[in-house]
Amino acid sequence: MNKELKFTVFCIENYKNHCNLSGSEVVKVFTDYDVFGYINEFFDVLHSTSHNYINNDIDIYLKSRGYEIPA
Q: What's the CA gap between 34 and 61, in Å, rounded?
């Protein structure tokens, strides 16, 4: 498994806990809103930050695309 794929799995797992969603729900959101593309494009920056930063950054990305973050 390459480092980008490992990081993507890390993001899914952390975002799942961050929003109290199932893994399949996170994959659907990430697919529907192209979060996977975002993670891939900004891998070099994101992988060197904390999981809290990554989760907040994904929240901002999703909100900018009209997704309502679960409370």
A: 10
Is residue 51 assigned to a domain? yes
> At 45, which amino acid appears?
V
Largest CA distance in the chain: 33
Answer positive or negative: Cα dihedral of 5, 1, 20, 23.
Answer: positive
The single residue listed with the structure tokens 């794929």 is: 5
Residue 70 has a pLDDT of 79
| Three-class DSSP category at 50 | coil
Q: Give me the domain span that covers residue 19.
A: 3-64
How many whole angstroms from its chain centre is CA 41? Answer: 12
Entry pTM: 0.92
